[in-house]
Amino acid sequence: MEQVLKLTGRIAFWASVISSVLVALVSYRFVPLGVEIAMDFVSHNLAGNSLALFAHIAVAPVALFLMPFQFMSGLRRKHPSLHRWVGRIYVAAVVISGVAGFQLAFHSTAGVFASAGFASLAVVWLWTTLGALYFALTRQFARHRDWMLRSAALTFAAVTLRVYLGSSMALGAEFQVAYPIISWACWMPNAILVETYLLMRGRRSYLLANQTR
Ligand code: HEM
């Protein structure tokens, strides 16, 4: 059973590495194509809100691209200073693109429910990432790891959003109906999954500690 769980974990990890890197790279399609062609439904931000738009679409993919490498324990052990530098860039990217994402949320054409979903995501993304930074700076590394896991689950919303949006469009759902739901569904289950994992892990180590007494 332990082996099956380990293998499932590895497959899930590598699937998330590949999908994060791919979504991050594809996000730069606006460079050769322009925002109007590459991502038409956010192009209304070009008039009067272009700073937030570019701060978000140019910087958020950096966070998504870097995030999985921070969880590679071999890399972290071999190159601790690289881990710290990549961590600083990740936090800076989250702060810039999170604040910009919060601003963009209120310009979404999909309505108040979608705005609330994205704005809440931006707030919890900034909170968990700055929390993780605080625990690293105060050398509470176990808590730093847990809070970075929370932050990463929210960064991964960029991937889950595109999976849900693509699937709902393929199933013939209407954009104006699907998108507001997805603005919440792209991150809530990710956050719940991480909290469940952290709770189960805490319970398991408590049981193990009491067994060996
Ligand atoms: C986790 C916090 C995030 C929040 C709160 C957020 C928020 C938003 C908002 C509000 C929009 C505009 C949607 C609309 O007008 O309806 C948007 C678009 C976009 N976001 Fe994010 N975002 C987040 C994370 C990311 C990440 C990690 C990436 C990395 C790839 C990303 C890349 C993009 C891109 C490329 C667009 C343009 C439209 C598209 O291609 O889908 N975002 N985001």
TrEMBL record:
Record bears the keyword tRNA processing: no
Family annotation (InterPro entries): DUF2306_membrane
Pfam families per UniProt: DUF2306
Transmembrane residue ranges: 12-31, 51-73, 85-106, 112-135, 147-165, 177-200
Record's keyword terms, sorted: Membrane, Transmembrane, Transmembrane helix
Name listed for the protein in its UniProt record: DUF2306 domain-containing protein
Species name: Roseibium album
